[in-house]
Amino acid sequence: MASITHPAAPRKTRHTMLKDHDRRMFALSDDNALMKQINATHAPDGREVDVKPILQIIGDVFRRATPSLVGVLNGTQEHVDTEDKTVPALDFDDILEALAFLIYKISCELSCKCSGGGDAHATTMALLNTLTSFSWDSKVVLTLAAFAVNYGEFWLVAQLFSRNPLAKSVAFLKQLPNIVEYSSSLKAQFEALNKLIKAMMDVATCMVEFTELPSQFISDDTPAVKAVTSHLPAATYWTIRSIVACSTQIASLIGLRLENTTALTTEAWELSSLAHKVKNIHEHLKSQLALCYQHIEEKRHLEYFYTLVRLFETLHLDNFKILKALLHPKEELVIGSSKKKVNIELLQRKHVLLLISDLDIPHDEIIILGHLYQDQTQYEVVWLPVVDRLSPHADKEKVKKFEELQSMMPWYSVIDPWTIEPAVIKYIKEVWRFNKRSILVSLDPQGRVTSINALHMMWIWGTGAIPFSIEKEEELWKSEIWGLALILINIGIDPKVTESMAKGDIVCLYGGEDIDWIRKFTKSAKEVATEANITLDLLYVGKSNAKERVQKTNSIIDKEKLSRFWADLTYIWFFWTRLESMLYSKMHIGKTVENDPVMEEVMTMLSFDGSEKGWALVVRGGEEIIARSNGEIALKTMEAFENWKDDAENIGFVPAYKEYLQKLHTPQHCNRLILPGITGEIPERIVCAECHRPMEKYFMYRCCTD
């Protein structure tokens, strides 16, 4: 095969794609003068042409016709794909019938004007004038269709000439066999041609996508729309200009001779330069189109959000529309570990509790809620986890965590939390004020929200709080007084305490994590019980949010037989969570420590938990008097039993104990109340339960793996 040299100044031939005038035009930027010429050809008559199906067929032509350089060019063309995989059965005969002659006319114009290496700019402008009444995207697609006809016919012959007599005769008349002969010389040219065709198709696809943007979600004055619109004339010009260049290249292959191939290197460079320019146009259009899609998504989400707002403001016969909008577009849920799919119609006209959490929901919460759920038939629970939609759905660790949590739950859950509508998440966060901590939204059988967080009521009263309305909450508090029944007995987690209270024994709850104080206090309390001849039930209830440390303390208490304790740490979690819930519930109904004694006692208990020291609460079964204090005063009181021993015999153990506590009490104190941040539930002003002065507010950021 003859080798090809690369002279410094290639000899001009009739096959040269661009003349000097064309190169000067190509070097011009899209300045005002050129834009004025392009815009002067544009006079759309308002007709709408659905060019998307035409573009699909054009893409199919290019895909099947694109030469394999190890195939046609080396004379070993691979098997031609004859299966119709891409072109759908499109019903647009009327469209093609109306445009067929125009496409034929443009294809003839491309063949004629590009055969002699004419003025590419003039040819481009002539085509724009021919298409003056069409939109910018239609101009590009129709010109691409005309080129695809010529390009497809060319490669159809090239692919079949070696085994089809008719194709061989046509190829001979066009002298196409020389393509095989000069395969080495043509490799760079066809590679550049293929890159330019891909770039043109990318631009055309972007332009067609732009015309399909839904007008109800995006307007012409949107910045991204303006940016694309202003760029369409230049994109149209350079795409059609590139089509002219490609047509010129295909025409130059007819009757190819060895002496003409020396110009092909320059021609390949021209194609590559055009491909670079058109690719830049595509990148710009694509980036602006992405901004358009982002704008549309935001508008859609906002419309969905306001649809939810309107749904919850509207009265319904049942809850189906509400559940459908919130849960899953396919109206399906799964049941716990069984993964059995069910339709949300099963929840129709039922009381539904939406458990909303992230994937860090405490296992204790699931366990306790599971116990309460299994003992009733009055409501259904649906887990709606809030996950980071930006995180990869393929994140195996997060998917695994979701499935593990789902398997722990006996109730319903969404199938895939990553498919929950963003507008639903927005509603959950903005209207229901979800922020990290789990909430339990209560929906009555008509879909009305009776509580945006029924968890507090659920922890305090269980199913007795249904329908979890504020009226029910106020009613339940009217029958409650501060005592061990409210603190512990009502939840039934420690039968021994219930038994002790029934017998009239003394019960002492204590907590903290100072093991030295625990040793001293339990030793002294036992000695006092012996001397006072009372039965004392000592119970260690630990500390909130300190599982590992409490576990260690439990081990020491057990080993040294200091007192009773809860081996199941879920009980300790539930004990402190209920106290927190009592505080939030009281706040919810507008109570303060100044006007509500139960709230005062709850805050005192929580402040004990917030300190580094121990604390103790003493009560006798059948009596309403409760004595509680911090660990230092409690220990001193036990150690000074001789000083109030007579009072214990005269007025009773707990009253005497309480009186002596008050004698030791001093005005000096430093109480801390640590509350988990729940948006909208903590008031700006909280007063000290001991002195009723406003407490200072500090922000504490906590990360505890314990």
From TrEMBL:
InterPro entries: SEO_C (IPR027944), SEO_N (IPR027942), SEOA (IPR039299)
One of the GO BP terms on file: phloem development
Residue ranges annotated for the Sieve element occlusion C-terminal domain, each copy included: 472-705
Segments forming domain Sieve element occlusion N-terminal: 29-316
A Pfam family assignment: SEO_N
Annotated PANTHER family: PROTEIN SIEVE ELEMENT OCCLUSION B-LIKE
Protein name as catalogued: Protein SIEVE ELEMENT OCCLUSION B-like
Organism: Carya illinoinensis
